[in-house]
Amino acid sequence: MSIVTSPRLGAMPHYEPGLTTADVLRKYGLDAAVKLASNESPFPPLPQVEAAIREAVGGLNRYPDGAGRALRRALAELHGVDPDQVVLGNGSCDIILLAGQALLDPGTTLVHPEPSFSLYPHLPAAAGAEAVAVPVDGVGRNDLDAMAAAVDERTRLVILCNPNNPTGGYVAADAIERFLDMIPGDVPVLLDEAYHDFVTELDRGRGISMARVRPNLMVLRTFSKAHGLCGLRIGYGVGGEAWIRTIDAVRQPFNTNTLAQAAALEGLRHLGETERRVQETIRERERVQAALTAMGVPFLPSQANFVLVGAGADAAAGTAVHERLLASGVIVRDGAALGAPGRLRVSIGTPPENDAFLAAAADVLGSPAAAAPG
To answer: Is residue 152 part of a domain?
Structure first.
């Protein structure tokens, strides 16, 4: 006998995690494989962060600080805001889900880019609301004019993703300012900047500056990418006090754990070392893109720690290329699962990992007949 569930469950998109290295080794009988599928940092946490985690283990018999006061104070100082303008989450996606829970109802809409982070459509499906998905532009950026035109009296939430996942496209801060001026000031906007650290444009920090003066804007950041803390799940939002009250109204009391808070707090004390790692990833991103250009393999120029690569004329062709890369021990993400059929999302790893991908790509994609136009 099955249980009775909400009919909304049928409308919820199912998130498909990337394959693990162990999965691929077992399936293909390989001795080694490189994982470039999940946009993780190729570097482990800094040694000082690992030490802070070990030290915090002794207090795990106690509940964490539900308010995350020390971490919020440090983040507030970093961004020039009051601690009451910072909220913590179990990864930034926790805050995204909380925003949907707090703001969406049947008959309302969420406006978001497409393709983009696959969690966004989950919010309206869970609330019985409607998703208004706006296609990105030809270079993978959020189409802000089209998104502004999609906002109407039913809109309760807008999500921007910058740089956009999975395309890597980046929208300039001036364009975001214009977008915010185009929509009503009482429409809440989440600016998801999970890949902010990898942007080389000079205006990359202005999202937080906008959030200081625009009450309807919250900017999301994460420690998962540049800080290498995917496994501990810690992210945060910076916004006006009304935004923070909205999230806190539905946030569970202990949504971030003791180890995650300790790791993030220690990481903020060593931003210079993290930035050096980020710069290495950026250099590798540029090297990978230059190599793809030399091979004649199409891709979308990226401002994130991944590149979306052309792999065929349609979903079937892209999936076939994905399968061939897996069989060669290179794990990337099939774009068909990300709303980008015929493409592959390739995370930037260490130089040897990237070399393995480029060697496999040269074999699988390195001819005009094998690669679709970008």
So the answer is: yes
